[in-house]
Amino acid sequence: MEVLNGLLMAVRRSRIEPGDTLMLWGRLTDLPIEAEAALKVDRAKAVLALGEKHGLTAYDAAYLELARREQLPLATLDKELRRAAVSEGIVLL
Question: Domain segments of the chain: what residues?
Answer without folding.
Answer: 1-35, 41-87
